[in-house]
Amino acid sequence: MSDPTEPVPAPTGIDAPVLEASSPSVATDATDASDATPIAIAPEVSPAFVAPEALIAPEGPTRFGSVPAPSSLRPSQSPSQWPQNRPTFLFLGIVAAVSLFADVTSKAWAEVVLSKRTLVDPAIVLIPDHLSFTLARNRGGAWGLLENASELVRRPFFLLVSGLAIAFIVSLYGRLGAGQRALKWGLPLVLGGALGNLSDRIIRSSVIDFIDFRANWVESMNRAILKVVHGWGVTDHWPTFNVADVSICVGVGLMALDMFVSKRGHLTPGSGRLAPEPALSTGPASKPPSV
Q1: Of 103, 212, 245, 258, which one is the catalytic site residue?
Q2: Strand 237-241 and strand 207-214: pairing?
Q3: Domain contains 289
Q4: Is residue 55 part of a domain?
Q5: Average pLDDT for residues 19-38, to the nearest whole number?
Q6: pLDDT value for 41
Q7: Residue 262 domain-assigned?
């Protein structure tokens, strides 16, 4: 017979009874141990444990101000890595070459045809009192800039300005995005016009102008300028220009258009445009799900 005071070893395995929580010490009385009511002890949960349900996103709309923006809204590539529909230098060269060819051929025609006109009838009238073709040679820049300056000053100045403008256009064109259509056309037009006038300055030391325009709004504009600039001439005659000047003005207009329509924000892949920032929620931030 076993001694009733001898401690009974606890069985192990599946059939083991539930641990007792009445006392940490070993029971010395077998009768008292048999009458003790077993109390189940809950297993300890590690602080690092997270229930799987907590990893599931809550249902309902998500506010921009409460959680970070999803990765789908962030650009995964830089603009230089978007190959589709990006402007190419081949397109730049083609548009600039067409603009340059139109300018050079029109100047050659004006120099041959209009130089044969007499002083009595020097112009080819297209729209009476408004538009005509008249041959003129401009040694200066726009509105006669540096026209009376020395050739040692005027020629290097315009060559330097034209060279810097061409370098800037080519550099800027290489950084265009896929959706910048205004600059895609505007920069080649400016480049072609700049090359047209530059070739005139190199070959003839002057620029051939032949498009003569007059209008009442030109006179009104000059009167307004006279109020600011003392001694400004008032006339209804716009300075004579050429095809290169038209290309430059249209190109600069497209560049200004792109500047106004562009918005601040993150670049969106595939479009090359500047997208607006998502609106932030003004309400309270949502609480994380409780475990």
Answers
A1: 245
A2: antiparallel
A3: no
A4: no
A5: 46
A6: 55
A7: yes
